[in-house]
């Protein structure tokens, strides 16, 4: 094959072609005619043989298309199986299982040890507000305590109480409406659009009227119909509320109540802001990434979660092992997140008290929110009321609505 | 890009029609045989002999015939077919090609469900990444609201994420198998562009647009096909790499940084997808133009070609 003949033939062919290109019509036509004449000569002789070739082709074609049809049916069946599988936290089970599998692979390969790139402060910008679950009203700062549950030898700390759930947070109607949402990169458009969060949590926006709270989860945006309950039922509800000390019911948002909400009588620590702010202060400029698809470089200031964990370490199990998970929720229990203990010990996981060089605003989660660049934004919970060590994978607000629990970046 | 067929080997003789009419009509009678032998004195001796052997009664007239037949075979070579079956696409290539089609479709569809989430929405945050524009000048943003409505994308993000992160495995595994097969089997030789491919591709494109005549000589693929098919494989690799850099931008931040950062990686991922869509449109049009013989070969593996055409095996084996 590798002798010069082949190459010469090719060159000849190419030369002929290039020549033809200069005189396209004449040569092309000649060649066509030649072949037709040749064909005519062989025509009668070869018909039977040609028919045999065609028959062979037909046999192969039929067989192949049968296999192809079976494969296509199988593929469609596979898709239907996924699509029709019973749901696991709002997505078909095979998809949920794959998300969990992907998390396992990611943990195995990366071990959550990578450090997020940092940027100069000049590149940072004000973070969008997006989602106000657990932030509907202002929290009275003096009433803030950080509950910590599952601490080793908790009774040795002066902040120990027998029942952390008995602590009463005080709320106030918002003094400031907060930023009306607009794009930070291009000028807002003139035509007014319905902005689900334009009330900044004052409770007057379309979201509070039953519209979608965020694009992160569906909702048709239609008004919910107000159902009038029978008087006897209403009375029973009022009695129940009274028996619970007239406290606001927990888990009032779309995903409902968390399975990990503490039972009354849970002992733990009640930390004041001073307990947190005495930890070493850190600043970070990282890129915040929302699963919606947008990202912003943000300047954060605060305290390492790892330092807090070191100061208030988790209680070990009977076999001397550390609990695997950490659970956090807002004081009203409306928003909640679960993490691995390792993710919380990541050096860039920050209990943020400042953003863009200023104290955190209420609508960004004052007094303390989480900054965790190894996770999507929906894990970076605002207004942390509780940090609990646990051995079971904790509930997570957006996981309940179909998102990945791991959410690792 | 579909195969460019300068001639149609399945119908080498225009209007040859079905086989039957040209076959001599023979009847098992003495007159019939005689007529045939006279009409086709040289070529059809064998037919006459056949008829005799199966005929209902031996006829004295034909007594000398066996002698003639006995002497003929040396002079008469059995008729050769003017066409043959060329094994064009190996089984593995065909499977991986067709598996890739629904998988890539699912990736694009689920990607759109995800991407809707960052479209210009009620938040008045027009997405910063997926647009046509330079600097602060934006010509267009993808896509208009009617498009999202038409594909039923709104509020199906979790579904999109679930499918995207399921089918990414199939896309990656299929792609890796495909490239491995190309390398191991030597099939890459018919696919990778050659020295003359660019020039050929320009010519092929001009011919396709009816601006010029005369296709360059081609083997399995012409220059345009070589470039397009190789490019689409590289695009697949690009989608995997940009996808990973978006999926784990902290853990693989060095890749993300090499790609120009997180937003840039998203931009690249998006435009690669647009590239797949463009490839798909051109590919399907070209396949439709190239015809059934070419399309069938992607399913059955075989194409009907002129018997005199050089075999592809030479191209596949190393020069």
Description:
- The complex is a heterodimer of chains A (409) and B (319).
- Chain A is an alpha+beta fold and 409 residues long.
- Chain A has 2 domains: 4-84, no CATH class; 121-187 and 232-400, Sulfite Oxidase, Chain A, domain 2 (Alpha-Beta Complex), CATH 3.90.420.
- Helices cover 32% and strands 15% of the residues of chain A.
- Chain A is built from 8 helices and 15 strands.
- Chain A has helices spanning 4-22, 24-84, 93-110, 231-243, 273-277, 305-311, 341-344, 397-400, and strands at 87-88, 91-92, 138-139, 146-149, 160-161, 171-172, 268-271, 281-289, 295-304, 325-329, 336-340, 350-355, 358-359, 369-371, 386-390.
- In chain A, the strands form 4 sheets. Chain A has a 6-stranded mixed sheet.
- In chain A, helix 1 packs across helix 2 (24-84).
- Mean pLDDT of chain A is 81; it is low at 181-225.
- Chain B has 319 residues and is mostly helical.
- Chain B has 2 domains: 20-79, no CATH class; 85-316, Fumarate Reductase Cytochrome B subunit.
- Chain B has 12 helices and 4 strands.
- In chain B, the strands form 2 sheets. Chain B has a two-stranded antiparallel ribbon.
- In chain B, a hairpin with a 2-residue loop joins strand 2 and strand 3.
- In chain B, helix 6 (157-185) packs across helix 8.
- The model of chain B is unreliable at 1-75 (pLDDT under 50).
- At the A-B interface, helix 1, helix 2, strand 2 and helix 3 of A face strand 1, helix 4, helix 6, helix 9 and helix 10 of B.
